[in-house]
Structures are given as C-alpha cells and as structure tokens.
C-alpha cells in the first residue's frame, strides 16, 4: 500500500512530467540548479538518480532536492536505493529488475514510500503490479544514449500493451522530448520521464515548460 499522502489521483497528477537527475549530462550545473529550473518550468516529479560518487554527497544533494520538491508540491523519488530514500524521507523509490526486489523493498519501507518499478516485459509489469508497485516506468520508448544498458527502443505499442494491462499509472521513458511526447500519452501513459531533454538542455526551465505543455495538451486531447 502506498503512502497516505500520495493517494492514486494525486500520484497520477504528479507523474505528468518526471525529471531524473544525471550529473554527467548537466554540463557542470548542480542537481539543485537543474531541479530548481525543472520545477519552475513545470516538472511534477523529480528523481535523484545517482550512479557514481560518494553516498555522503548524494545525501547532501538529496536533502536539498527534497526541500525543493516539498516547496513545489512535487513528488521526490530516489533511484535504486531504499536505504537512501528512507534516510532522505523521500516520497518514493524507483527500482529496476536489477535492484532490490520489490517485495523486499515493500517489506523494508512499509507504506512510507511510493514504489516505482521498471519492467522489461508485460509479465514483469503484471507481477510488479501484483507485488504492490505504485507506478511503472516503461522504456526506452525511443532510442536513448543516456542509459548504456537500456537496450533497443521498446516502442509505443509496448507502452500501450502495459498501460492497458495494469491499473497503476505508467510513465514512458527513453528518448522523450517535447516533440515526441504526445504519442506516448496517446498510447496510455500518465506522463513522461526524461533526463537529457531537460538536464542537458541549454535552458532546462524552458525545456521543462515545453514538455509540460506537450503532455498537458496530449492529456487534454485524450480526456
Ligand atoms: C521513471 C523511471 N523509469 C525507469 C527507470 C529505469 O530504472 P532502472 O531500469 O532500474 O535503471 P536505472 O535508472 O537504475 O539505470 C527509472 N530510473 N525511472
Ligand atoms: C533511465 C532510463 N531507463 C530507461 S531509458 C532511460 C534513460 C532516459 O534518458 P533520456 O531521457 O535522456 O533518454
Ligand atoms: Mg535501477
């Protein structure tokens, strides 16, 4: 069961524009700078995605991001690590097939964390929903160079299949920009998750605003 302060409709709205941090792509700008700009542009969820460097530094960055998200009313999620998510009092944790199994994460976190999961297949998506995942991140929808082991694009049909099969929200991820976000929503996703389109942008605030406008327009067209 998810956190009481993120009931299903609030969570669904928070997953419209989900921005993940990536220090390697941020062109020397800090996580705080990027996240401030992303939130100002309309990001509704932020994920601290920390793949290298001292954990103590992740804690420092995470504390600052948690405060920014609280002020903005945005969902704050930590990638991969339940311990870090709990230590930061994050809203959630995002797990993949190579991370701590969902059931273990739920056992450790109870209802203190929203848990997101990235399935590779429809079967994994159904199993994750049964095991108590609160949302799914499905991708890479389009080709991406950001995650070396992401594999080839899964395509829009895969998003559609999973979104139809589960009742929890699905966000599309991988190679998404303001120009190609619309079909992802039309395929049934609640929102889109991005890294390079915002983190590596010349103007991350404007990039987030363009993405948010594209998602909102597509959601309005679907209603
Ligand atoms: C929202 C969202 N969707 C998918 C992922 C990918 O998770 P994972 O497969 O565990 O890969 P890493 O991000 O850990 O490299 C995600 N992080 N967020
Ligand atoms: C973390 C992740 N999981 C699947 S694709 C991907 C990378 C997304 O990055 P980008 O938005 O730059 O393609
Ligand atoms: Mg992971």
Walk me through this protein's architecture.
The chain has 223 residues and is an alpha/beta fold. The chain has one domain: TIM Barrel (Alpha-Beta Barrel). The chain is 43% helix and 16% strand. The protein has ten helices and eight strands. The protein has helices spanning 8-14, 31-41, 55-72, 82-87, 102-109, 122-130, 156-165, 182-186, 196-199, 204-222, and strands at residues 17-20, 45-48, 75-79, 92-96, 114-118, 135-138, 170-173, 191-194. The chain has an eight-stranded parallel barrel, surrounded by seven helices. Helix 2 packs parallel to helix 3 and helix 2 (31-41) runs parallel beside helix 10. It is globular, with a radius of gyration of 16 Å. Bound molecules: ligand LCLJCK34, 4-methyl-5-hydroxyethylthiazole phosphate and magnesium ion.
Question: What are the SSEs and their pairings?
Answer:
Elements: H1 8-14, E1 17-20, H2 31-41, E2 45-48, H3 55-72, E3 75-79, H4 82-87, E4 92-96, H5 102-109, E5 114-118, H6 122-130, E6 135-138, H7 156-165, E7 170-173, H8 182-186, E8 191-194, H9 196-199, H10 204-222
Parallel strand pairs: 1-2, 1-8, 2-3, 3-4, 4-5, 5-6, 6-7, 7-8
Helix pairs in contact: 2-3, 2-10
The protein binds the ligand Cc1ncc(COP(=O)(O)OP(=O)(O)O)c(N)n1, 4-methyl-5-hydroxyethylthiazole phosphate and magnesium ion.
Function: Condenses 4-methyl-5-(beta-hydroxyethyl)thiazole monophosphate (THZ-P) and 2-methyl-4-amino-5-hydroxymethyl pyrimidine pyrophosphate (HMP-PP) to form thiamine monophosphate (TMP).
EC number: 2.5.1.3
Pfam family, one: TMP-TENI
